[in-house]
Every structure is written in structure tokens, then in C-alpha cells.
């Protein structure tokens, strides 16, 4: 009888609790607002301790081969940093283990195990990121998809290709070349499709062919519980439901792991030349680009290198680039192309005329493959040329690369003020840019003891871009390096909406934590330079 009475009380209490919760749902379960401010996260995320990690690794070992997992110190460090980024991991920021899945199902199984034990996950493909995207701030498992490097299908008639995330863009280009096709985005050497999608990168051809968001048709993504989704089918256009493809492009591995991508292709130009022209001022160069676009000329690429960069090239190339002499004046480089020699000749004439009208001189047109490669390689290797130049002048020099983007009309002002700020603080710089879309890259060069000054001028550049209606990053992404400026650019509410999206798809906050925006109200991480 006593047991029965106790049972009835328990049931009654359960009903009472149910009815109370029904009338008064907890805000943590059913938030009333459409966004999540950081202050609303009342505690730090809870992640697995080392004993739980060991259990998870043992489970992964039941389906991953021995060569698909490693915890060697060298590999742990290499998967936490690279030579391109200035944002380095702190001493404790290493993954517990690196997993190398071979296919989508293995990625999903790894994610399910990490979800079960609450282990953070950091996706990794080419490892070329600039803004500290793959620093394992919460340790966890690094999921390296570089062995998922197959081109799964080419649809020539539809001008698209289906690839795994470990395919390098250069390898993809070599594969497509015999078909007379190409993939538009062309970032730095070594970048792979997974990271390119995750950062919405672009490159020198963006003003003609767009960024990654313009070239991704569909994605297959593994979500935080191991669910596998496809964001859409292959048609170029679709008005069916939410644009899930766009949601994951630029998400930097914080919402899911990209395991397959359907990419838009374009036909390679039948005829293409490289043109170079010097200008005495950045304003003349920027106006030239604007005037060309106003004429409806769709140049395949247009790049700017300022006079400091050209001085560096002039001193360091030693005639290796085609045996030519370089001027130390501001330089525009063009790729002009068309379906016939007649069309190409018309483009060359119009572009040359506009350049001359705006003060351009030393106009040169390269037509042979050797000459085109010799000239364009100067742009593609400028980062390493600049670093070598800096170390020649200052053997212990350090170099901090960063990018921002503004409307093209504001580019001369931004560059002039940035260079003035850097040099007035006793540092050196070189500037290059995808001038066709207002995206510039500055390399800040300084002695190690002036790291605080370098940090200040880099932050000033980012703020200056926002003040000029620009963005904190044109193509490198936010990562750790730019996240403190995202609210300044977009506003607090927009970032809070991003945080809500993150929580809705990754409630345990396991995917690439601490990137783009903060997820921990108690975080006190100090960036390591």
C-alpha cells in the first residue's frame, strides 16, 4: 500500500511538472529571441576529458586502419599551424589525434563518436589558411580530409564537376585542361576544395569568375551528430527550399564537415594574353580599372602591385622572370581573353586606350605561353619575394600578411592611409590587390621587438576598411584573427544570429570551436604571435 501511494505521488508530481513546463518552457530549451548574444550562454561548453578521448580513439580504431590515425608530435604541430599564418597555437593547443578518413561514411562515423563523447573536431584539408582557422583551441580530434582527393564525376555538357574535399584546385585545373575547361577560383598554391569552400576564398580571377560562393552548386555535408545531407541537386538554378549550400560556404568548419562538392566550370578562353602597365599613382590605376569595367570589358583578371612591391621585385628577381627589367612604379597586370583573335584585339585596343588616357605607360602585351607565365609568376610568387627582400634588409624580420576589401573607388585612399600608418610607425610594407573587386593584401614587415606595433597597424587597417564601407576579409576568412572585428562590420545582432545558427546545428559546440565568433562567455584566450 505504501509503495502504491508513493507511486501515485510520483505520477502526480510528474504530471504537475509536465504541465508547469508546458505553460512555462525554459528559455534554455526554447529561446524566445531569434538570436543568441554571448551573455546568454551562461557557462562554458563542456568537452571530454582525456580518459573519454582515449575511449573514443579506441572506438575509431575499430574501423580506421593504423595509418589513418596518428598522434606524432610533428604531425600534431603541423595540423595546428603553418608557415603562412601569423596566428600560432599556444603550447597546449594541439589535437589529441589526427584522423584521416577515406570516404564520407568514415567521416560520419568519426563525427558520431566525437558527438557521443563531446569531443571537439577541427576539419583540415590543404592547411594553407591565414587567419588561424585550424588552431585546435579546445584540443579534440583533427579530421584531415586530404586523402579524400578523388574527382568523382565530370559532366562536360553541364559544365560541372563533383569532387571530394581533398582535391587541390591546381590538380583540378590540370585534370580539366585537356577538356578545354577550368574552375574559376585560383587562391594560393596548395589550397584544397574543402578549405576553399569553408573560407569562401577566391583569387586573381574573382572579378570575372566570382568567389567560391558563385562557383559551388551543391555540397554534401556531415552534421554534428553524423547525419549526412546533400544541400541540393545539380541544376544551376533551384528555388526549392532554403539555400543550404550558401549556409555552409564560408562557415569555416563551424557548422559541418564538407565531404563532397559539385562545382561550376567554365570554358577556357580560346585566346588569352597578359598585359602590364605602369602608373605614377594608385588613383590613376584604380580609375583605369573602373573605366574598363564601365566599358563592359570583362577582363579575365586584373591585379595591382604598388610601388613598394615593385621596388622589392626589381631588387630581388635578378631578371629571373623572363629576363625582363621591372619598373619600380605602381603596376596593373591584366589577363585579357576572347573567343577569337578579333575579339581579343578589340579588347587590347580598348584597354590600352583607357590606360593611356589615365596616365599609364610602359604598356606591354605578352602572347607566348613562356612570356605570359614569366610575367604572371611575379604576382603569384610576390609573397615569398617580399619575405626574402625583408630578410635581406633585416635578417630577423617577421612578416604579417592580412587582407581586407572595400569598394574599388575607395581603394586608393585605403592603401595610401594604410601605408602612411605603417611607415610612420617605423615598419615596412608591400601591397598587392585583386583590384577588380577592391580586395587588397598588405604584408607588414617588422623586427620581432616591435610585434605590438605591428599588431596595432594591422588592426588599424581592418578598422579603416570597415570605416570605408568594406569588410574585414575579402577572401581569407575570419578564423581567430579577425573575429573581434566582425561585430564592428556587421553589428552585434547579425553575429548573434550566426551564433544561434551555430547552436541549432551544433548544440554541443563541437565543430571548430571559437572561430568566427566567441561561443564561451568565460574565454580568456590570448592570441599567440
UniProtKB/TrEMBL annotation:
One of its GO terms (cellular component) is mitochondrion. Its main location: mitochondrion. Pfam families: FAD-oxidase_C (PF02913), FAD_binding_4 (PF01565). GO terms for biological process: lactate catabolic process. It comes from the Eukaryota. Residues 90-268 form the FAD-binding PCMH-type domain. InterPro entries: FAD-bd_oxidored_4_C, FAD-bd_PCMH, FAD-bd_PCMH-like_sf, FAD-bd_PCMH_sub2, FAD-linked_Oxase-like_C, Oxid_FAD_bind_N, Vanillyl_alc_oxidase_C-sub2. The keyword Transmembrane helix does not apply. Its cofactor is FAD. It is found in: Mitochondrion. Its EC number is 1.1.2.4. The keyword Mitochondrion applies. Transmembrane segments: none annotated. Keywords: FAD, Flavoprotein, Mitochondrion, Oxidoreductase, Transit peptide. This is D-lactate dehydrogenase (cytochrome). It comes from [Candida] arabinofermentans NRRL YB-2248.
Amino acid at each position: 500500500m505504501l509503495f502504491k501511494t508513493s507511486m501515485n505521488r510520483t505520477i502526480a508530481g510528474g504530471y504537475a511538472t509536465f504541465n508547469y513546463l508546458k505553460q512555462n518552457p525554459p528559455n534554455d530549451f526554447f529561446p524566445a529571441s531569434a538570436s543568441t548574444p554571448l551573455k546568454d550562454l551562461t557557462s562554458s561548453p563542456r568537452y571530454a576529458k582525456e580518459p573519454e578521448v582515449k575511449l573514443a580513439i579506441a572506438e575509431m580504431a575499430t574501423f580506421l586502419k593504423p595509418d589513418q590515425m596518428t598522434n606524432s608530435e610533428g604531425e600534431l604541430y603541423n595540423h595546428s599551424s603553418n608557415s603562412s599564418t601569423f596566428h600560432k597555437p599556444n603550447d597546449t593547443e594541439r589535437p589529441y589525434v589526427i584522423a584521416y578518413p577515406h570516404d564520407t561514411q568514415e567521416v560520419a562515423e568519426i563525427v558520431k563518436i566525437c558527438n557521443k563523447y563531446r569531443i571537439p573536431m577541427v576539419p583540415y584539408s590543404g592547411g594553407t589558411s591565414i587567419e588561424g582557422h585550424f588552431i585546435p583551441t579546445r584540443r579534440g580530434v583533427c579530421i584531415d580530409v586530404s586523402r579524400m582527393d578523388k574527382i568523382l564525376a565530370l559532366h562536360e555538357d553541364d559544365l560541372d564537376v563533383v569532387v571530394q574535399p581533398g582535391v587541390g584546385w591546381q590538380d583540378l585545373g590540370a585534370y580539366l585542361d585537356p577538356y578545354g575547361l577550368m574552375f574559376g577560383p585560383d587562391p594560393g598554391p596548395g589550397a584544397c576544395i574543402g578549405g576553399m569552400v569553408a573560407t569562401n576564398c577566391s583569387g586573381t580571377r574573382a572579378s570575372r569568375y566570382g568567389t567560391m560562393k558563385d562557383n559551388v552548386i551543391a555540397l554534401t555535408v556531415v552534421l554534428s551528430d553524423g547525419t549526412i545531407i546533400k544541400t541540393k541537386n545539380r541544376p544551376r538554378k533551384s528555388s526549392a527550399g532554403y539555400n543550404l549550400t550558401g549556409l555552409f560556404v564560408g562557415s569555416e568548419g563551424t557548422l559541418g564537415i564538407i565531404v563532397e562538392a559539385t562545382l561550376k566550370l567554365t570554358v577556357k578562353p580560346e585566346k588569352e594574353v597578359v598585359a602590364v602597365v605602369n602608373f605614377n599613382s594608385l588613383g590613376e590605376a584604380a580609375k583605369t580599372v573602373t573605366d574598363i569595367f564601365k566599358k563592359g570589358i570583362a577582363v579575365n583578371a586584373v591585379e595591382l602591385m604598388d610601388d613598394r612591391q615593385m621596388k622589392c621585385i626589381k631588387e630581388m628577381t635578378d631578371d629571373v622572370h623572363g629576363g625582363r627589367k621591372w619598373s619600380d612604379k605602381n603596376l596593373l597586370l591584366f589577363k585579357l581573353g576572347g573567343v577569337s583573335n578579333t575579339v581579343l584585339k578589340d579588347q587590347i585596343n580598348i584597354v590600352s586606350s583607357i590606360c593611356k588616357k589615365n596616365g599609364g605607360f610602359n604598356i606591354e602585351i605578352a602572347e607566348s605561353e613562356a612570356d605570359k607565365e614569366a610575367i604572371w609568376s611575379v604576382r603569384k610568387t610576390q609573397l615569398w619575394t617580399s619575405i626574402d627582400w625583408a630578410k635581406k634588409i633585416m635578417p630577423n624580420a617577421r612578416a604579417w600578411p592580412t587582407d581586407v576589401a572595400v569598394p574599388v573607388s575607395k581603394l586608393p585612399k585605403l592603401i595610401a592611409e594604410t601605408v602612411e600608418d605603417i611607415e610612420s610607425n617605423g615598419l615596412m610594407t608591400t601591397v598587392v590587390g585583386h583590384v577588380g573587386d577592391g580586395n587588397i593584401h598588405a604584408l607588414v614587415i617588422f623586427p620581432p621587438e616591435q610585434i605590438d606595433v605591428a599588431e596595432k597597424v594591422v588592426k588599424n587597417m581592418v578598422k579603416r576598411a570597415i570605416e570605408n564601407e568594406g569588410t574585414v576579409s575579402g577572401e581569407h576568412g575570419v578564423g581567430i584573427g579577425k573575429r573581434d572585428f566582425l561585430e564592428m562590420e556587421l553589428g552585434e545582432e547579425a553575429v548573434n544570429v550566426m551564433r544561434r545558427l551555430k547552436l541549432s546545428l551544433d548544440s554541443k559546440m563541437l565543430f571548430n570551436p571559437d572561430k568566427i565568433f566567441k561561443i564561451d562567455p568565460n574565454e580568456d584566450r590570448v592570441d599567440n604571435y
